[in-house]
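Structure catalogue
Derive tokens from sequence
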Amino acid sequence: MLDKKVGKQTRRLHNPPVITATASIVGPKEGKGPLAAHFDLTVDDELWGEKTWEKAESKFVKETYAKILSNASLAANGVDYIIAGDLLNQSIASTFGLRDSGVPFYGVYGACSTIGESMGLGAMLIDGGFASNVVCITSSHFCSAEKQFRFPLELGSQRAPTSQWTVTGSAGVLLSAEGTGPFITKITTGKVVDLGIKDQNNMGAAMAPAAADTIYAHFEDTGLPHDYYDMVITGDLGSIGLEILDDLLSSNDIRIGKVLNDGGVMIFDKKQDVHAGGSGCCCCASVLAGYLYDSLKKGKLRKILLVPTGALLSPTSVQQGESIPCVAHAIVIENVIGG
């Protein structure tokens, strides 16, 4: 155990799990963005034939899970665990979407960092010998998220310039004990960070300090040079949060601006009127399952540090005037073990 522990927050995996398959299904707005070619399926209606936004989100989860199994040529009885979560109260998108799976299930909540949280836990299950195949999956939906956290769409409320567009869809990965890569070699689990931001329409500013804290901890724990990675990609800070993150890292002498990027910046085009960029659990997850995974498999990227970020607020906490606690989890993904 002791030689798996690297510094305070990082763990080195002795039997690094392999990302053997991914899948992503997204809504029409995402399908018109710059990463459209990398998604498995784009639907042309956010309701996808369902009566409510929440039922549609569960359908995204159900169909994405089926697509992961299909892409991996794996039967459901070959999956040891599913680890999943979403933004809805009690994570109902995940539980209702996966209730017919027949697979042992762990429900987790990390807000938009959920894919990082689930992959970190899944990787430790495999490294510890407790599982051979773990599916990590998440979802979000613009309409259900607006309804729960802000205002019903019917009100036609004006969105603030700092606001972000919640990605509609579901995405996930299959982690396996055997395979040819890419591998998860290290994980750095984030701490809850709260600098007192209360504006729920400025998620980037709230989450950037958590991302900076985890990235700083990762380099401090590992001693790796700051230019080690081909890309350091955060989850959904958007353009405002990404700028803040770069400033925070630079103030701690971590200057990785050339390789620093964000899923919320990448997933939409500026012409799509999403203000500060994308957000939501599916934001980072779909960028990973599509563009990043394709780039790793083709050798265009060799090693990345994926840092999904999450704002741990709720409608209740906002109504009570609370600030927004945040967290970020870092996952090292490498084509070849050791770089």
Summary: The two ends are 23 Å apart (CA to CA). The CA atoms of residues 19 and 198 lie 37 Å apart. The chain has nine helices and 17 strands.
